[in-house]
Amino acid sequence: MSLSTTPASNKTVPTKTVPTKSAPAKGTGAFPSGRWQLHHRVALRPEPFGALAYHYDSRRLNFLRSPDLVHLVKTMHNHPSPKEAFEAAGFDCARWPGIQRALASLADSEFLIPVTANGPTPGPTANPAEAEAG
């Protein structure tokens, strides 16, 4: 814990530094190589702008603001790296930095996870919300 002075009141208040969890690309926008996949507890709902992604474990919602990004996250497990998946899709190379930042953000929030040595994790057989309702 450290002390800092607020400019308006000249009072000294304690501040606490909270460590952040280690993430693949926290703050840099870089995305690690290797095979990645959409978490099996994430559902994508198609939208005109791309898709809404909902994580059933964390209850977080993410907006995938491009149909190209949606295509990439759905197919990247078939490629040795995200960059190779991007290139295989034939997207304009100038878009890679923005796509890379989006992928890093999705990985940081665990919407994307590394593919294990056993291969991609199979997705759910049904939408978890429908299974609970039925």
Written overview of the protein:
This protein is of the alpha+beta class and 134 residues long. The protein has a domain at 31-116: Outer Surface Protein A, domain 3 (Alpha-Beta Complex). The chain is built from four helices and seven strands. It has helices at 67-75, 82-88, 96-108, 128-133; strands at 2-5, 12-15, 36-38, 42-47, 50-55, 60-64, 112-114. The strands form three sheets. The protein has a three-stranded antiparallel sheet with strand order 4-5-6, with helices on one face.
Task: Explain briefly what this protein structure is.
This protein is an alpha+beta fold and 134 residues long.
Task: Please render the helix and strand layout as text.
Layout: E1 2-5, E2 12-15, E3 36-38, E4 42-47, E5 50-55, E6 60-64, H1 67-75, H2 82-88, H3 96-108, E7 112-114, H4 128-133
